[in-house]
Amino acid sequence: MSADFLIRILGLIIFSLMGGYYGFWLSRTADINAVWTYTLGMGSVGALFGLIATPYFTTFPLKALRRLMVRVSAEKLFAGLSGLIAGLLVAALLAFPLSMLPQPLGNILPFIAVLLFGYFGVSLFVMRQADILSIIGSVNQNGGETIGANNSTWNLGSRSILLDTSVIIDGRVADIAKTGFLPGTLLIPRFVLNELQYIADSADGLRRQRGRRGMEILAELQKISAISVRITDVDVEGVREVDDKLVILARQLKCPILTNDYNLNRVAELQGVIILNINELTNAVKSVVLPGETMAIAIIQEGKELSQGVGYMDDGTMVVIESGNKYIGQTKMVSVTKVLQTAAGRMIFARPEE
Questions:
Q1: For labeling, which of 201, 254, 261, 304 is most exposed (least CB within 10 Å)?
Q2: What pTM, to 2 d.p., does this model score?
Q3: Which are the contacts of 27, defined by CB distance < 8 A and separation ≥ 6?
Q4: Under 8 Å CB-to-CB from 107, ≥6 apart: which residues?
Q5: Angle at Cα 347 formed by Cα 260 and Cα 289, nearest 5°?
């Protein structure tokens, strides 16, 4: 049986007894023959009220509070609790002198001080949570008690990074994580993991292979000691699409999304969400060459135009060599003539060195 059902039954019993007692109390001034009528009537009203309304002030508020608490990061919870404790301590120190004031101020002001300092303490600590956690992290490191990466994320910064399904399947995130260029916690929502499992169980062989590769990448990420990987059960109700859930969750948690999905990139940017695009990172770190530079290129195939040859640099950049078709299968020194930036990436034009 569900908790709502048990709460409804319990509310039915309690409110029926309260209604029956109230009906009996009302019937004391009435005719003795109306006692049972009042008692049963008010008891029935109380039972109906308890059956319908009990969850609205018991389980429903608790569920709403639980959904709210799940969305809040551990760092924010710690900062808020610390601020509340600090505010209550200040209010406790002021309670005695405030209670010595003339009445009714002596009774009212201590209670108001508790509310005000508790609120200001929580607000201040949550606003400055990054500074507070960085101070705690530096104290731990200076004291020789550095927190392990798998146990806490504070030594890596308070930022969380949401991972998209496409970037997990891509696999390059594991190589980037090993270099230490991803500070913070890699946060993988349960709905992303479910989508990855759905792809791995697909009847299509290619999709199934991509899904299993994503599972292997996740296992590899969890073994990397330089980063913290956390799978969270936080969900977004009322939304079915995974991309939409990621954008909403990123806005709630105020954290970036790591992806290489162009459509998700555009939608997230329009809604003010920070995007970390691996494709853009790849283009940014490619080798920079200027016209006139020379380099050795292995020419492996013909180009689209007549007499062209095509080779690739170590980072995958395509090099089109004019009059290079006669050198296919050879490594040739070429001189760069033009560098062209396209939507698909960087393309280099060159000619063979004589």
A1: 304
A2: 0.50
A3: 34, 35, 37, 38, 39
A4: 99
A5: 105
Q: Are 110 and 98 in contact (CB under 8 A)?
A: yes
Output 274 or 143, whichever has higher pLDDT.
Answer: 274
Q: How many Å apart are CA 17 and CA 23, to the nearest integer?
A: 10
Per-residue confidence (pLDDT) for residue 321, from 0 to 100 = 92
Tell me, what amino acid is at 66? R
Structural domains in the chain plus CATH codes:
3-62 (no CATH), 162-284 (3.40.50.1010), 294-352 (2.40.50)
Q: What is the pLDDT of residue 156?
A: 41
- Summarised one tens digit per residue, pLDDT across range 5-39 is 788 888 888 888 888 888 777 777 665 567 777 77
Nearest to 162 by CA among 240, 66, 247: 247
Q: Give the pair of three-digit tokens for residue 159.
A: 């930022």
Q: pLDDT of 79-128, one tens digit each? A: 888 999 999 999 999 988 888 888 888 889 889 999 999 999 998 888 87
Is residue 158 pLDDT above 60, yes or no?
A: no
Q: What percent of the chain has pLDDT over 90?
A: 13
CA angle 258, 215, 239 (to 5 degrees): 55
Q: How many H-runs (helices) and E-runs (strands) does the chain carry?
A: 13, 10
CB 95 within 8 A of CB 118: no
> What SS3 state is found at 349?
strand
Which residues, in sequence order, are CB contacts of 239 under 8 Å at separation 6+?
245, 248
Beta bridge partners, 259, equal 277
CA 246 to the chain's CA centroid: 8
